[in-house]
Request: fold
Amino acid sequence: MEWDRITLALQLLAIDPQGLKGLWLRARSGAVRDRVTAALTTLPLPLVRLHPAIADDALYGGLDLSATLSMGRPVVTPGLLEQPGALVLTMAERVTPGLSARLAHALDAPRHCLIALDESAEEGEGLPSALTDRLGLFLDLDGISWSESADIVMDAKALAQARALLPDVDLPADAAAALTRAAAELGIGSLRAPLLALAAARAHAALSGRRGVEDTDLQQAAELVYGHRALPLPDSAPQDQPEPPPPDPGEDAPSETQSESQSIPEEMLVEAARAALPADLLARLTAGRAARAAKGASGTGAERGGNRRGRPLPSRPGRLGSGARIDLVATLRAAAPWQPLRRRAAQSDAVLLVRTSDIRIKRFVETSDRVLIFAVDASGSSAVARLAEAKGAVELLLAAAYARRDHVALVAFRGTGAEVILPPTRSLVQTKRRLAGLPGGGGTPLAAGMKLALATATQARAHGLTPTIALLTDGRGNIALDGTANRALAEEDASRLARAIRATGLPAIVIDTANRPQPGLAAMAKVMDAPYLALPRADARRLSGVLSAALGD
Amino acid sequence: MPADTAPKATDAKIHALPKRSTARQPFPFSAIVGQEAMKQAMVLTAIDPAIGGVLVFGDRGTGKSTAVRALAALLPEIEAVEGCPVNSARPDQCPDWAQVTGSQIIRKPTPVVDLPLGVTEDRVVGALDIERALTRGEKAFEPGLLARANRGYLYIDEVNLLEDHIVDLLLDVAQSGENVVEREGLSIRHAARFVLVGSGNPEEGELRPQLLDRFGLSVEVTSPRDVETRVEVILRRDAYETGYDAFMPGWQAADATLRDRILAARVTLAAMKTPNIVLHDCASLCIALGSDGLRGELTLLRAARAQAAFDGADTVTRHHLKAVAAMALSHRLRRDPLDEAGSGVRVARMVAEVLP
Reply:
């Protein structure tokens, strides 16, 4: 059953690869996946293998420097994207935003189709949405065993006939409208989806040897193209709705007179796509999106290797091209010992004979400084017992941060608002002095503290630092953002801020300093996507140890 | 996929592909359904490039890239010296290093240059021409994307994912209008004045405030919510894909009308009158919104003048100011992480308050 669906998808792709744009194939490499990829030979386009680390000159062509050096005249290599092709991207889950943008651009013109072999195993990995949005089809081979699969037989002759028929396939007037409505009903925002579904419906009609698109074509197309794009259904539309709402009589009358095959049942289209949704797919997709948003945030990244700037690393043998910088001295040094031998072998009296293998590339490593932002609850409830402990922990961490040359910032909240006690600094003395002078007392404006911590972190990130927020509180927020003592409003504000922090993708940690762990605070940490630590009774040293471990060093 | 199953295709199969004409014009600008703010912003920069660029932020599949490619086909042609790598208008403006010998003026399309993500510094600013250096031993400059974009548009898709060092470069050049290259023994400078067009999806990353400030106008696009509009989008796009020859003529005529209107507006703009009351309105609006710096006022005024010229008026009025206030100011406000309504709404609220 599932395998029939896979076979159908591959047939449609073979009929109109450029219209459907391609296939997102999620599967571990293995025998089952090989059965699917073997069927790709029937695509009417030459297969071109790409890998995630492919360089620009391989994609777009350019001067082949090594060949040019040895031939003594310009040698130009053609790029892989020059001719229309079926691009097979292996390890697609590791594709960089740069490559995905280039491939997306290539797909926008109807020349190529892309088969993305997504081998992601863990949550948070996955294909960038620039590509998933553009690829028409999605197949998930996870959980399909060898015995459930079969060799895919593609009838080349039938496919060729369908391809010939494709330009003549007509669309009934309301087909596009029906597919668009179905997409809207499934919560699919992108307008590429209905276009891809139209292409799939045409290909399906051509496959059946028909010149007109019929209901079955639309249904199959919706199932194949919409299945993985659908958002979670709103609760207001339960699946076992007994009866569709009574249609407007004015609209109803003409549709009754239409012939049965011409009216397009929108209800059925939606059901088809719902039925094709695997159980845990949505959870996995949304998880991947969140993690990606966090990763793609600009300015972060504790350490980046590269060949452009930063602290120099020893040069390495490598290929010239696409942004690499030659280390001239190292290259000459590598070439020097071989000169007499080469001169003899080449029968040449050239001053210098440089081979490709001599070329050394410059490398640099760039680190962005980290900044730890402490948001400390100095309210009355906290002050009684735990403020001293929190201060002690911050001091211990300060010492560690000083050793690593990290920056530290201190935000305190108490009474009706929050203030930056110390903007990001490396000065240990100043931090200690300010910390010691931090008084406690008053209400708990948790939301205000979080807001200020977030603002400080955003600002630090704009300056190229890598911020981390450590929130130390007993969690009993009772002052709302506007300074009023309203517990319900305060809690709402705090949870909105937790969502805002999550949206920025900042790493954060929540430390519960209440005498007994607060379930509300744990829930808020979950919203923030931050680790939660409850420390009922701890000395400062232990607190700092836990914090260091949770922050990953 | 093991090597022995690595598929090969034969030439016979390639020819069996359904025919699709390859050299076709992009989707026409006039045929884009809805997205009025985005279209308006792009037309305004076409009238007055000094407005300084458009930032388009929004969901996937809302026609951001389509609009930019359509704009390229819509823009009027420019006059440039034949063979000049930086599209100079007069022979005496051609840079020395280019060694332009001819002085013939030709008409060519306004350049719209793509700056892809992950592009190297060499490609952007230009570098030593390796080919000539290796083969002929000459020290020559190979112009980069900034040279090609001079007097035209520079388009950056996914601008929020652009690497920091490229952003630094762009900021520098956008400010000075000149590209200075000091590398590999070269010392070269050339004019690089361009309209920056950026697009991106805000879910994937923020834009640096400095770069944000460089964009004169910013618009947010969302997928159309009502089904009828969406159906119309799909129908037009489908007609373009499958019935290109029948689809294009009508829309190309509409594009030509729009182009004429832009050209007429450029003429009107030169004689545009700006009453003091409008200047006063600009300033009080920016003060009320607390936008940083004076760039907000300047852009607002320029955009309002361009809008007035497009409407065929000879004087800027408060009406024109209101029409462009949101796109000229919404990205210059201080960010409020809790404001879920978006800054465009804040501007609209303030406009209603300050300019009744």
